[in-house]
Structure formats: structure tokens, C-alpha cells
């Protein structure tokens, strides 16, 4: 039997063959590792780290750090295409468009290729979503330079040209995007919209709360640059855009938001038109709020003008002694008269004063305070209660309530109701970190009085002296009604509902402010009941509407050439949907002029 012995060693040839293979593998691995160490150490590693850090800092909004990182990368590798591209990102973000274009061009010339480090489509879409169309344009353009078949970049650039109103270019890029991606639904949708707008020769950009168009850009030559669809009825709200005479209204305050976006106002165009129609030829202003939210549903001033003919009618407008360019709702102050008695009565109730300590009082039509004649509008005889005082709007009764309170308490409550404070119906844009102000004239309450006569004047809503006036805007007058309607809470009014970009994406949405308590709900309910009686049985009866319970207060105050007629109200009284102020500028008394206008408006709103 043959015995096989184990071999305990390799032959010399096998041994040396194995050694050679190991050596070759060691050399290959060494070369690869050496190349890796060479490329990712020293200058190359530092360059890569600075690029990554620059991108990270850019995305965090730390632009100065990002700028430093990209410059350090350039110091290591002069003319580094990726570092130049990074600097371009920063210049776009900063709005230095000329420098951004120059740097992006240099990056391409230096050999920039499409890469995973800097995604220009991503940044372009961020700018596009938020309405920064020039910035988006530069990012999408750079993306297309790197890859001219990128359907998302082509679509994005089409959106930018669409926002700029260049429909031919927009259609061209939407079509290119669909060429490379036929199933790209957003591109097909926008292409259809752009073609429709081109055929119509107009782009709509301003809407009411319900999406009804209010203004458009005109694309056809020979037409005005813009058309305002409700002409004189929204002239003071929307304003105008004239190369000769500048901008006014929303056109001025939201100038940088209008191009390419769709602006939705809180205005209800149907209510606005109703108000304009019912106002007739009276000078003055009407403001209607949603009391619960602060949304301005209508704001109308008269005399007005046609913004579509602003250049043609300019001389006629500015030479009109009635000054039609003044928005009387927010840009003119008036003595409040008896509408301010809701403030006096609020202070009386809130301070726990008793009617028996003041009433009954005797109203003979006039009396003497501090050796000066103080007048009431009528002889009311014996006034037994606050209820009777407000039903008849007795000035002498208000004077005695004012005496029981004193000027300091009245001043405190005037401050609560918003006097001597700024009211702004604009908004703060957190994205752009800027406040868009639509300022309103500040209502004035006289904080000091010399004697009982001046205190009596203030308690009745009248100016104690020319040097110490008591004044309010119609918008603020609507706020007085709103506070009572809201059971004592104030909500800041606003007129911008939302802003959407060229694709309909929400950029900004206004929401009601935090309600602020002004008076107790108990006091508000009491005053609401008093205001209901004013309309049902008192001097506001001409505002009465069958089937609707309205809470209102008339007022009459002095103007330079006649009486100002006031009426503030809210309805339905149990669940208020509207808070309204009507001011007829030097047109007569509140109970005979303003109250009937309110009735007609409420009748129309009921329909």
C-alpha cells in the first residue's frame, strides 16, 4: 500500500510567485492610498473643506462667513470654478446682480461642470417660491448653462419671465421644458395660462377677498399700462401707477410685491361697489370691518377720481378744491361728536359709578360751565338715566358723566380705545424681514383741560379748543363700533389678505392679531343694548331695517364750513358680521344724513 506524505512546504517557484502577487497588490494599494492622501490632504483637502463650509454657511444665512470660506478656497486654488460659483450664490442673495452675473460667467469660463455640491435649481426654486424672481432667474440661468436639457431649470426660468410679463420668453421656456419632459404637468399648466394671457393681452395681479379681479397689466401697445376694473370705486384703495405722477395707494405701498405676484385684498368688491353707489354725491368716507377678524371689507372716500384717467385728468384733480386725492377714511381727521360718547359711557361703567350719583339732570338746551355757554343740540328736559341720555344723545348728560370721571380717567379710556396711538393696516413680512406700512392719521384725544367747560366738551366728543383738538379718522370710528361688537375686544384692522407667487404658491398670509381687551364684556353688553335702543327708539331710527337688529350711535360735529354727520354701527347685533362708520363731510346731522345711508347699506348686505 502506497503511503502519501503531507507536503509541509511549497516549491520554490510557487513561493516566489505568491510573493510577487503580494508585492504587486501592496504597490497598487499604496499608489491608490498615496493618490488619495495626495488629493485629500494639504491644499486639496483644505480647498474641499472650505467649499463645504461655504455652502453650509450660505444655507444657514451666514453670508459673511460663506464669503470668507469661498475666498479662502480661491486663495488655495486661484480661479477655482466651484469657489467662484459659490461667490456667485452670495452675490445673488445680496441682490448684487451685476457682480453675480460676472462671477457666474467666470465660473463657467474656468471650467465649471454640473456637480452635486451646488444645486442652482434648488436655490432657484426657493427664490421662485417666495417671489424673488430676479434672483431665481440668475439661478435657473446658471443651471441651464451647466445642463441645457434640465426641464426643471427651463420651467423655472419660464416662470421668471412669466412674472416679468415677458410672455413670449415664458412660452418659449415652458415649451422647452415640455420637450425634455412631456409629462411635466406644471409646465403644461403655465404654458396654457401664458398663452391665454397673451391672447387676452392682459395679466391680472390684484384681486378682492373672493378672487374677483381688481387690476391688470395691459400687454397690448396703445393701452394704458394698467387698468383698474372698479375705476373710481376703489381709487383710494388701489391708487394708481403713473410715470408722470408717481404711485399712490396699494400701488405705492406694495410696489415691490406687485410684479409677478397675485395680491388678494380683504376688500369685498360687491360691498365696495354697494357703498360707492349708496354714498351718492355726499363728501365723506365709509369703512366696513369684519369685527371679529379686523378685515377691512370696504373703504370708500368721496370725492373720488378715475385712476384709469389719472394722467389725462391730473390738472382737474389737483385743482379741485374738494381735494379728491385725499383718502378721507384714513388721511383726514374729524371731530367725533356724539359717537365718542360710547367711550365716556364705557369709562363710567368700568369705574363702577352709579347712575343715581349723576342722574337725573336737567337739559334746557344750554347751560353755563366756567362762565361759558355749553350747548346741547335740543332741549331734552329731565334726563333720568344713561339709557335716556344716549337715546337722545344729550350733551349735558354726557358733561355730568365726564365731571364724575375727570379728564385723567377719560384719557386712560381714550388710550385704551386707540387714541394718540398709531394704527397701521399694513403687514410685516418675516421672509424679507421688512414692515410694509399703510399708515393712518393718528386720532387725537386732548389729555388736559383748563376748566369744566373744556371737560364737558371732551365728555361729549367735542374739541375743547383749537390748540387742544379732539379728532378721529373714519377708520378709527369703525374701530369704536368693532370693540363694542366684539364684547370689549380690539383686533387690529388689515387690508392685505394674502400674496401668492406666479404659480399660486402662498408667499404671505395675513392673520388677525391677538385680540386685546379694552373694556369688560359686561360693559360692552350694556353699551350694545344702549346702541340697539338708539336705532330702535332713539335718534338713530332712520338706520332701522326690518328684520335686522342694528346697534348704532349717531354723531354730529363741527366742520370749517358745516356740520359733519356721523353714524357708527354693527349688525346683526347678536352675532355681528359688520362694523361700520359713516362720515359725511360737512353734509349735515348724523341722524338725518348718515343714519339713512347705513340703513340702505344694511338692506343691500342682507340681500
Q: What is the CATH topology assignment of the domain at 42-196?
A: Serine Threonine Protein Phosphatase 5, Tetratricopeptide repeat
Measured as a percent range, the helix fraction is 40-55%
Number of strands: 21
Structural class, by secondary structure, is alpha+beta
Distance between the termini: 121 Å
Q: What is the overall number of helices?
A: 23
Biggest sheet, in brief? Answer: 6 strands, mixed
Low-confidence segments, given as residue ranges, are: 1-10
Mean pLDDT score, rounded?
A: 93
Can you walk me through this structure?
With 607 residues, the chain is α+β, with helices and mostly antiparallel strands. It has a domain at 42-196: Serine Threonine Protein Phosphatase 5, Tetratricopeptide repeat (Alpha Horseshoe). It contains 23 helices and 21 strands. The strands form 7 sheets. The chain has a 6-stranded mixed β-sheet with strand order 3-2-1-6-16-17. A 5-stranded antiparallel β-sheet has the order 8-7-21-20-19, sandwiched between helices. Strand 20 and strand 21 form a beta hairpin. Helix 16 crosses helix 18 (395-405). The longest helix has 28 residues, at 12-39. It starts with 11 loop residues before the first helix and ends with a helix. The model is unreliable at 1-10 (pLDDT under 50).
Amino acid at each position: 500500500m502506497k503511503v502519501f506524505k503531507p507536503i509541509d512546504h511549497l516549491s520554490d517557484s510557487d513561493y516566489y510567485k505568491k510573493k510577487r502577487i503580494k508585492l504587486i497588490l501592496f504597490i497598487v494599494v499604496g499608489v491608490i492610498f498615496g493618490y488619495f492622501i495626495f488629493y485629500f490632504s494639504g491644499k486639496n483637502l483644505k480647498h474641499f473643506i472650505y467649499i463645504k463650509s461655504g455652502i453650509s454657511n450660505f444655507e444657514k444665512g451666514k453670508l459673511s462667513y460663506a464669503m470668507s470660506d469661498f475666498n479662502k478656497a480661491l486663495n488655495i486654488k486661484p480661479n477655482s470654478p466651484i469657489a467662484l460659483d459659490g461667490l456667485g450664490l452670495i452675490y445673488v442673495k445680496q441682490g448684487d446682480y451685476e457682480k453675480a452675473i460676472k462671477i457666474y460667467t467666470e465660473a463657467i469660463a474656468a471650467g465649471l461642470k454640473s456637480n452635486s455640491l451646488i444645486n442652482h435649481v434648488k436655490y432657484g426654486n426657493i427664490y421662485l417660491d417666495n417671489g424673488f424672481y430676479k434672483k431665481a432667474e440668475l439661478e435657473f440661468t446658471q443651471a441651464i448653462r451647466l445642463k441645457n436639457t434640465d426641464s426643471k431649470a427651463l420651467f423655472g426660468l419660464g416662470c421668471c419671465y412669466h412674472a416679468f410679463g415677458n410672455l413670449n420668453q415664458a412660452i418659449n421656456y415652458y415649451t422647452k421644458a415640455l420637450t425634455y419632459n412631456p409629462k411635466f404637468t406644471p409646465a403644461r399648466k403655465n404654458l396654457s395660462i401664458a398663452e391665454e394671457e397673451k391672447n387676452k393681452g392682459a395679466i391680472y395681479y390684484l384681486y378682492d377677498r373672493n378672487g374677483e379681479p381688481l387690476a391688470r397689466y395691459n400687454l397690448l401697445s396703445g393701452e394704458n399700462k394698467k387698468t383698474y376694473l372698479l375705476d373710481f370705486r376703489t381709487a383710494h384703495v388701489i391708487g394708481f401707477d403713473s410715470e408722470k405722477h408717481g404711485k399712490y395707494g396699494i400701488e405705492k405701498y406694495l410696489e415691490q410685491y406687485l410684479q409677478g405676484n397675485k395680491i388678494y385684498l380683504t376688500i369685498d368688491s360687491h360691498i365696495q361697489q354697494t357703498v360707492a353707489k349708496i354714498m351718492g354725491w355726499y363728501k365723506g368716507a365709509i369703512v366696513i370691518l369684519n369685527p371679529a377678524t379686523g378685515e377691512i371689507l370696504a373703504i370708500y372716500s368721496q370725492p373720488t377720481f378715475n385712476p384709469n384717467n389719472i394722467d389725462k385728468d391730473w390738472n382737474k384733480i389737483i385743482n379741485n378744491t374738494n381735494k379728491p386725492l385725499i383718502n378721507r377714511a384714513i388721511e383726514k381727521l374729524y371731530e367725533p361728536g356724539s359717537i365718542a360718547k360710547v367711550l365716556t359711557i364705557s369709562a363710567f361703567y368700568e369705574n363702577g359709578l352709579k347712575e343715581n350719583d349723576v342722574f337725573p339732570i336737567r337739559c334746557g338746551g344750554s347751560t353755563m360751565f366756567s362762565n361759558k355757554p355749553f350747548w346741547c343740540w335740543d332741549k331734552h328736559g329731565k334726563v333720568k338715566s344713561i339709557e335716556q341720555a344716549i337715546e337722545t344723545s344729550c350733551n349735558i348728560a354726557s358733561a355730568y358723566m365726564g365731571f364724575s370721571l375727570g379728564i385723567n380717567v377719560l384719557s386712560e379710556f381714550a388710550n385704551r380705545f386707540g387714541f394718540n396711538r398709531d394704527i397701521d393696516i399694513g403687514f410685516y413680512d418675516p421672509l424679507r424681514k421688512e414692515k410694509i406700512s399703510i399708515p393712518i392719521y393718528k386720532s387725537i384725544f386732548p389729555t388736559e383741560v383748563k376748566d369744566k367747560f373744556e371737560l364737558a366738551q371732551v365728555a361729549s366728543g367735542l374739541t375743547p379748543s383749537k390748540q387742544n383738538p379732539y379728532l378721529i379718522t373714519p377708520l378709527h370710528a369703525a374701530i369704536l363700533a368693532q370693540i363694542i361688537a366684539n364684547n370689549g375686544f380690539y383686533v387690529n384692522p388689515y387690508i392685505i389678505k394674502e400674496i401668492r407667487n406666479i404659480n399660486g404658491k402662498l408667499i404671505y398670509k395675513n392673520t388677525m392679531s391677538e385680540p386685546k381687551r379694552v373694556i369688560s364684556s359686561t360693559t360692552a353688553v350694556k353699551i350694545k343694548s344702549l346702541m340697539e335702543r338708539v336705532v330702535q327708539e332713539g335718534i338713530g331710527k332712520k338706520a332701522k331695517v326690518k328684520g335686522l337688529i342694528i346697534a348704532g350711535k349717531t354723531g354730529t360735529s363741527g366742520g370749517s364750513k358745516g356740520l359733519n354727520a356721523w353714524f357708527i354701527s354693527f349688525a346683526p347685533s347678536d352675532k355681528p358680521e359688520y362694523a361700520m362708520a359713516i362720515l359725511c363731510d360737512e353734509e349735515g346731522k348724523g341722524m338725518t344724513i348718515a343714519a339713512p345711508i347705513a340703513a340702505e347699506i344694511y338692506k343691500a348686505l342682507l340681500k
